[in-house]
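User: My notes are a mess, but here's the protein and flavin mononucleotide's SMILES. Can you give me a structure?
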Amino acid sequence: MVDFEIIVGSVLGASEYVAEALEEKLNEHELTAQVHLSPDLIDITPKATWIICTSTHGAGDLPDNIHKFAKQIEEADLTGTSFMVVGLGDSSYDTFCYGALQIEQKLKISGARMIAPALNIDVLNQPIPEHAAVQWLGTWLSSRG
Ligand SMILES: Cc1cc2nc3c(=O)[nH]c(=O)nc-3n(C[C@H](O)[C@H](O)[C@H](O)COP(=O)(O)O)c2cc1C
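Assistant: No problem, the inputs look usable. Here's the predicted complex:
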């Protein structure tokens, strides 16, 4: 079993880079992670900590590759599952990071527990979103002692 399941929602690939950078950071701390680019609940263990890493497209919509997962979590009992959320978005949209927010709400409704405040990365101000994500994760890992 891995320590972290990194669940990716991406259209253009930026969230995939962020997910890979998070995986590397976890590995540096001797933690194991599995990145899911076509997430399916069947392959994701609830005992690991989940990191959802998703962008927003359309007008506040989730990327197509994470739609199946979003539907599956609506129908699941996720009591006992812990998660964190990293959203990528562009603050020029009034639906800034709505995709990440949708996933957060669905997970909470299904009983999962959010264990860190969400990180919403504004790609307008963060040309290299991985940097913000790795820093955020590093702070969280240090706070665990
Ligand atoms: C057609 C289009 C629609 C977008 N809509 C939104 C949006 O509604 N809200 C938001 O925060 N960002 C929006 N974005 C910005 C993307 O979320 C941002 O570029 C992100 O880095 C893309 O990540 P990805 O490569 O993993 O898909 C949109 C981008 C495009 C190209």
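The chain is about 35% helix and 20% strand.
User: Great, I'll file this with my notes.
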